Amino acid sequence: MGGNNLLNILIQTVKSKMTGFVTKFRMYTSWSFIKTRVVVKIREFFSNLLGFKPRNNEDYFTVGRWMISRRLVYALVLIIGVVSIWYISTETSLFKHFDEDGVKTYDYNSLRLRTAKGHVRILGKSGYRAFDGNVEEGYVTGEGTLYNPVGNVVYTGTFDQNKYEGQGTLNYPAGNMMYQGTFHDNRFEGNGTLYRENGTKEYEGSFARGMKNGAGILYDSGENELYIGSFSSDNIVYSEMLGKTASEVADCYKGARDLYMTDDESVVYMTGIGALYHGVRDAEALDDEEKVTEVYVLHDYFTYGGEVVDTIPDIEDVLGSPVYEGFSDIVLPEAIAIDIINSGRNAFDGVADLVTTDSFSDVSTVEAYDRDYEVYIYTFRRGDVLYSFVCPNRAGYFEFYYVSQDEEETA
């Protein structure tokens, strides 16, 4: 028992003696301590070097009329040498990291990258592979692939001075395709195909400034053709339906539709694009086929020249002063539009008392509607097309609008 006590006392004594040694050893061998000591020594060295006051002519270099401190020159030479060694060790190809296939790899902020040319790989801030492709004079130019931090491809195709330019493919963050086609200045430009995030095709055709512009085909969620025609600033050019016959509109709009009929007029609700058109029979036409007189767009916003506006004052900013404004009794397509809108968001007070008889699931005969129901309308002229915005009352907001031909301009 006594021997065990003596052994424990000996062990505790040795441990107490070693604790200080171990603590000092850990401190002296820690990187933070070493770095601190090195920085302190370097600071003291340069402080002593630069703090020296020359006492006689031997402490100067004479250059013409100038006298320069020898120690200052030595300090500058030493600084330049240290910086040069650091630059060579971190930036030149002699010490540069190469991938297994021999491609140079640079950090995104590498000075050497600014003069690199040809095929390289660039690492992002956290060390992930951000780019693999061609660079020239410090810019990503030519073929290449851009990655996000989780390793998914963001873009693959051609670049010009760090921008998407030419043929390429842009992906959603998860890596599935968003757009394939031509680019200019980082935006969709020219011909291309746009995909939804679930992978289905949304649009195929012409783009400008990153938006659907020109001739194209819009697809529904099942990748069936929905609308074939002209687009502007991501929207269908509804005015191009004006004056067309019902069969000609059917060549443009391929989606589901609901038909509302009376004895002498009809309204077709194009459910896939949220719009309806009003058709009236042309008594002078040989085929007596209905012609589209107005197209009603069931949106409470309006897009013009890439700008989206949703109030009448904003409409006035883009279309000018209205050529007409005031209360008006509703007509058949307005009654149908109000009935459809109110079924979703109760935008209009009261009801238009639309009474219909269903002949088929998508065909209804209109028996009656409240012809004394009033709405407030603002009408604007742009070229030979009239834009009329329908409001529940005289207020700053509209609930839908319609386009029609300006008879004065076409007369």
Question: Largest sheet, order of strands side by side?
Answer: 3-4-5-6-7-8-9-10-11-12-13-14
- The number of helices is 7
Summarize model confidence as the mean pLDDT.
85
Helicity range of the residues?
25-40%
| Distance from first to last alpha carbon | 124 Å
Overall shape: it is elongated
Q: Unreliable runs, pLDDT <50, ≥5 residues?
A: none
Radius of gyration over C-alpha positions, nearest whole angstrom: 38 Å
In the residues, how many domains can be counted?
Answer: 3
Strand count, sense and barrel status of the largest sheet are: 12 strands, mixed
Oligomer, anyone? Answer: single chain
Content-based structural category: alpha+beta
Strand content: 35-45%
Q: Could you tell me the number of beta strands?
A: 26
Structure in words:
- The chain is α+β, with helices and mostly antiparallel strands and 411 residues long.
- It has three domains: 48-95; 104-231, Histone H3 K4-specific methyltransferase SET7/9 N-terminal domain (Single Sheet); 246-410, no CATH class.
- Helix content is 25%, strand content 41%.
- The protein has a twelve-stranded mixed beta sheet, with no helix packed on it. It has a ten-stranded mixed beta sheet with strand order 21-24-25-26-18-17-16-15-23-22, with helices on both faces.
- A hairpin with an 8-residue loop joins strand 25 (385-391) and strand 26.
- The longest helix is centred in the first third of the chain and has 28 residues, at 2-29.
- The chain is elongated, with a radius of gyration of 38 Å.
- The mean pLDDT is 85.
